[in-house]
Amino acid sequence: MWELERFDWASLRSANSAARIGASIEALRTAESDDAARDAYWRIDNEVIVQGQLYEAAVPTACCLVTALGACTASARARIVELLYQLATGTPHASESACGEHDLSFLCRREVLRAVPQVFASFEQAPFQSLDLWVDLLVVLSAEDETLRPRAQWYLQRALRLDVDGPLRATIERAIEEIQA
After folding, report:
1. I need a labelling partner for 4 at 20 to 30 A (CA). Which of 24, 56, 66, 139 fits?
2. Are 149 and 94 part of one and the same domain?
């Protein structure tokens, strides 16, 4: 994936070393099994978004994951959406704030917003067990860009017409209320 080549991963700050993040993103994008996707997911998460705190490598990671979402395996899709959600909701790690990187959260949300077309396109393909990830991401993106609210509400209303019940139905109904607020 060409987008990975735009960044000098080894020069970026992360929890330990960002040098392998690009390879981990590619491993996630092309994962042929849920186990492979999970392993790649954790290699990214443990470097870039540790406990919801973002490192400098988060913005390039968001750029690459947005691109990857449009060309990933079914095994990878939910993991990529989960990482995008975490990037969109994360806050700068204290070490990044000390370096003057106060805009990491905003920059990550801006990059994740670029995934909106893929998020809507993949929403209907999301497996039930991970549909809540798409719902949560739509809420975050709609809060960031209010022009998305009508479209997000429509997709959520449409999802309610599926055979959803219990916690997932409650999650979707809550999301619709949050977007309308």
Report:
1. 139
2. no
